[in-house]
Amino acid sequence: MAPPSDFPVPHVILPTQPHHYTIIALHGRGSNGAEFAEELFEDKSSRGLTLSEHFPHTKWIFPSSQKRHSTVFREKMDEWFDTYSLTDPSTQQELQVEGLRDSIKHILDIISKEAEFIPACNIVLLGISQGCATAIHALLAGQHQLGGFIGIAGWLPFRKQIDNQAALSKFYKETLGLPITGTGMSQIQTSATTPALLCHCTDDDVVDVELGHQLRDTLTASDLNINVTFTEFASGGHWISAPHGFDAIVDFLRNRGFD
Q: Looking at residue 60, what is its pLDDT?
C-alpha cells in the first residue's frame, strides 16, 4: 500500500564524516522538520556539544507532517493527526485515525528507503510530543528491528485498545488499514525487539508525565515486552531537559554503537 504523496520533502542534515547511521526525528504539533532541527541542535550536552557534533557519522532526517484541520483550533495546522484532548487522549479518538494512518505510512516509507543504504540496525526513530505518539506506532507497525527508539514527552494513542500483540495487530489491520502480513504477530515481535529510551519532564504542562508513564507501562507490561529505559527529569517543561536529557540521549546512542 503506497504512502500518501502530499507530505513535504523532509529536512535533511548530512553527516560531516562518512555516513554510518541515520536518525529520523519527528516534530511535535504546530512545528515542522526544519524548525525542530534548529531547536534540537541549539541545546548541548554536559560536554558542550550538540547532538550532531556528538555523532558526525549520523545523517539526520526531519520529516514534516501534513497540514491537517485541527478540530480544537478550528484551522489547518502542522500536525501528524488530529487530537481533541491531551488531558485525555482517548476523547474523540476517532479523529486521530486518518492522520495517524497516513503519517505512519509516510514514516515507514522513509525507513524503508533509508534501509536500502544502511542496515536497519543503524537507524533510530525519534519523536517529541505528537511526533513521539506517531513514531511509536510507526516502530511497532514496521517490519524492521531498528537500532533504537527515542521518545520525548510523548504518549500512546489508542493505548486502551492495544495492550497485547494480538490487539495491536488487529488495530493496525482493521482500524488503520496498514499492510500487516498474516496475523502480524511475527512482524510486531520483530519491531518490538528495538530498545527504547523515553524521556519526560515532571513539569511538562502540555503532555502530563503520567501519560509518559502509561506509554512506558504499556510497552513493558504487555507481551510486547520492549526494553524501555524511562528517564524522568524535574525540570525542562515540554522539551528535553538540558543538559542531562541530552546526556541520556547521547549515552543511549553510544550504547547502540553510534559514534
A: 98
